[in-house]
Specification:
The protein is an alpha+beta fold and 391 residues long. The model is unreliable at 1-14 and 261-268 (pLDDT under 50). The two termini are 35 Å apart. 36% of the residues lie in helices and 26% in strands. The radius of gyration is 21 Å and the shape is globular. The protein has a domain at 27-69. α2 packs across α3 and α6 (204-215) crosses α8 (232-244).
Length: 391
């Protein structure tokens, strides 16, 4: 099988001066999209190019080549907290693991999941109501007691961030990282804060708008209004006053790994064998240990996601041909915290990310829903339905 070139391990790909200039412009385009979304006319002005040129780069050099875009909710501002669990399904439920986790997005705040290699272990991410993070963890342990999981380890985090793409060292012509492991060039850590944001005022309309921006950030407000059945004037007010004014978005994610969910096919589409995903978990870290971990991890341009607090978590997508360097890196990073650290290689073919679920917000009570007894009852019905459909 022929592998596409991905990362620089010896020398950079040679480019003509014109190609270098175009690549630097596309790299800046990506940085602006990360902050502002696909506001192409505005971005073209900032780049000093014609808007049709910027639109061409966006559509032809990014979207058509598999670089997808999604809005990033500011979950802390929405009153949500990231919890990450490593879980193994019991033998009875193992055949239905993916189906159960997909359904748990609408049921109990699941945000994403990915399966480890070669273990039968899932990494489960959820953004749960801040006041119910401990309840959510107890709920997952109750599922273990009921025989759904054979093992479960879940920990909460004070903050979480999707790491912006380091487009300044990426060759968009050849889809290749220009990273030198020997020199480890200093990287801009990005503009997003590493501390939790304060909770903001929200309502169900805000959440529906955010959901649509996660699904299709290029959609106009008119298109979003038609989909969620909110008139344009009301929707524009919510977008300006709440979404933008209250900072309910952290920015936009440019998916450089090429994995996306196709709603028409109802399955994930992947660039197989281009990246090997690694998830690093370090439990019970001191502030000094966490800062040292962050300093080392953020030397890499391949970091996708990071979370911290009393625990530390990083998700890294290593180009396949850099596995020797990746293993050496993991050994170096985990050596000072070896007794607290665990890490797993993940299978991107068994992975999905989900948009936010407005149905979990109680507009009348103005709070997120969480009733453990009701949740267990719904889960039991769900498990029976899934078993029935797949048997």
């Amino acid at each position: 099988m022929v592998l596409e070139p991905n990362a620089r391990t010896e020398r950079p790909t040679e480019r003509s001066p014109n190609n270098q200039d175009t690549n630097s412009k596309i790299a800046e385009l990506v940085k602006l999209i990360t902050k502002e979304g696909p506001q192409i006319t505005q971005i073209a002005r900032e780049l000093g190019v014609h808007k049709e040129t910027a639109r061409y780069w966006y559509k032809e050099r990014l979207l058509k080549r598999g670089y997808t875009l999604a809005a990033i909710p500011n979950h802390e501002r929405l009153g949500l907290r990231r919890v990450i669990a490593f879980a193994e399904f019991s033998e009875d439920y193992r055949p239905y693991g993916d189906a159960i986790l997909m359904a748990m997005n609408e049921l109990c705040y699941l945000t994403s999941f990915m399966k480890a290699l070669p273990e039968d272990l899932y990494s489960i991410h959820a953004n749960v109501p801040q006041e119910h993070s401990s309840d959510w963890i107890r709920f997952m342990h109750t599922l273990k007691q009921k025989g759904v999981f054979s093992s479960i380890h879940a920990v909460p985090f004070e903050w979480a961030r999707v790491v912006p793409m380091h487009s300044e060292i990426y060759d968009f012509e050849h889809d290749a990282w220009q990273y030198d492991w020997a020199s480890k060039p200093k990287l801009d850590p990005g503009s997003f804060a590493y501390s939790p944001s304060a909770k903001a005022k929200i309502d169900s309309t805000d959440l529906k708008i955010i959901e649509q921006l996660q699904i299709d950030p290029s959609a106009s407000l008119t298109e979003i209004g038609d989909k969620i059945q909110v008139n344009y004037k009301t929707l524009t007010w919510h977008y300006r006053k709440h979404i933008i004014g209250n900072g309910l978005l952290k920015g936009y994610m440019v998916n450089w790994t090429g994995t996306r969910y196709d709603p028409k096919l109802e399955r994930a589409l992947h660039r197989r064998h281009r990246y090997m995903w690694l998830e690093l978990m370090v439990s019970g870290v001191t502030e000094t240990e966490r800062m040292e971990l962050m300093t080392k991890v953020n030397q890499l341009p391949f970091v996708w996601f990071e979370a911290g607090g009393q625990n530390y978590f990083a998700q890294i997508a290593f180009p396949m041909e850099t596995m020797t360097e990746a293993l050496s890196f993991v050994k170096d990073v985990t050596s000072p915290v070896r007794q607290k650290a665990s890490w797993h290689f993940m299978d991107q073919a068994n992975a999905l990310r989900f948009s936010i679920s407005p149905s979990l917000y109680d507009q009348e009570a103005k709070k997120w829903k969480f009733d453990q007894m009701e949740l267990l009852s719904k889960f039991e019905r769900l498990a029976l339905e899934i078993k029935g459909m797949t048997s």
